[in-house]
Amino acid sequence: MSFHLDVEIKALLQGMGVAESEFSGGTLIVRSPLTGDVLAKVPEISSEKAIAAISSSSEAFNEWRKIPAPRRGELVRLLGEELRANKEALGRLVTLEVGKVPSEGLGEVQEMIDICDFAVGLSRQLYGLTIQSERPDHRLTEQWHPAGVVGIISAFNFPVAVWAWNAALALVCGNTVIWKPSEKTPLTAIATQALFLKAAARFGAEAPKALSTLLVGGREIGALLVEDQRVPVVSATGSTRMGRDVGERVARRFGRSILELGGNNASIVTPSADLDLTLRAVAFGAMGTAGQRCTTLRRLIVHSSVYETLIPKLVGVYNAIKVGNPVESDALVGPLIDQLSFEAMQSSLKAAREAGGTVHGGQRVNINGDASFYVRPALVEMPSQTGPVLEETFAPILYVMKYETLDEAISLQNSVVQGLSSSIFATDIREVELFLSAQGSDCGIANVNMGPSGAEIGGAFGGEKETGGGRESGSDAWKAYMRRQTNAVNYGRTLPLAQGVKFDV
Ligand code: UN1
After folding, report:
1. Are 236 and 350 in a shared domain?
2. Whole-model pTM?
3. Where, by residue number, is the active site (predicted)?
4. Which CATH number goes with the domain that contains 443?
5. Annotated active-site positions, please?
6. What is the pLDDT of residues 137-182, one digit of tens each?
């Protein structure tokens, strides 16, 4: 092998300020999907220590909420500086731990930097409202207060950006954060926490010790966050199965959850589409990140008049795309995260064949031996939207179907249980506007002339139906990390009651 992953990992982590004891001698074995090699053995936290960490975080909240929001923004600005200074190293670590191609590894860190910038500006806003009171000499307003400890449960595929979306907002809002990363990606989390601690040290003593806490461990550690009354907000990214469980348990104790769950994202290609642009967008949307984004394009709904032009070309792109180890080559498609993911992909392809689908690609490619799982992305022509097409398989499978009328296409796109992202390829304004109207896409994200993935941080990110309804990142997503308080003030000398009620004692 031309590179030594464990040696490089050690140098990267130490370069970002991580002590060796944090990634060696532990029980959580971390493998690189690039080669299957063991990268590190990370110590896991015990339940007792995790419960104590929740206590420390609640105490830290009592201090942090007193700091003015623009000053809290300064800490997030420093975090953004640390991320800028360490972009190459952290991006590389994302590539080694998750298998993302280098530009996507770096892009993930850029997304963290962007949300820090966004949150710094937000720290001087967090606006409330003034509302007209129905009573004389009264003032009615609404203001936003921090919620408390925010639990963040993140998935392997965006191992650090999703933490940053949540943490940057939560921190400027005056909350403390506790992070339970995916068991598959603790190293990028440990590095990110080290960078946070550097920023906090530069910020000074106003930053309480337990402002941001990292809990490396299994499911039972995540469950502690989900069950604990002292964690009023739980933000969880992952499968619908996980989210249904988290959502129910958090709701039972009247906590708030922000859920980012499965996607089964479709694009509609209309007769007016620019087919060259469509081809490139579909390639990135469906094969980028080896199909392992929640926003990955999974269903392509193509008008019958352009099907015969577009699909053979697309199959050509699928045949030509370079699959490989992105550290050793200029491959655009890296490995799947692990064997389970490979098996899930193969079983979906089998089900697709049984349902009458014609499969192009999808076979395993031997790049770095038996312990890594590289595949050729699969394009599957389906006679109808059935079987595996209705499910999210977290792998590069694109199901392609034909349609005749736009109403039929929109109805196909909407008739799955997931509702994250969607897009239309069209230059006819009527088609575009219908797709964006109330009768159009039912998803949280609806794009025009681009694929469904690769959202910018400035917009609210999230989806409807079994995607969970949460919104993170831009727009007014910050409100989910705060509690709203309505304030009515009587500055007169009488006591007029609302609704004209009389109660003279
Ligand atoms: C995810 O896959 O968990 O829109 C999030 C995108 C990225 C985020 C994806 N900005 O593809």
Report:
1. no
2. 0.97
3. 260
4. 3.40.309.10
5. 260
6. 999 999 999 999 999 999 999 999 999 999 999 999 999 999 999 9
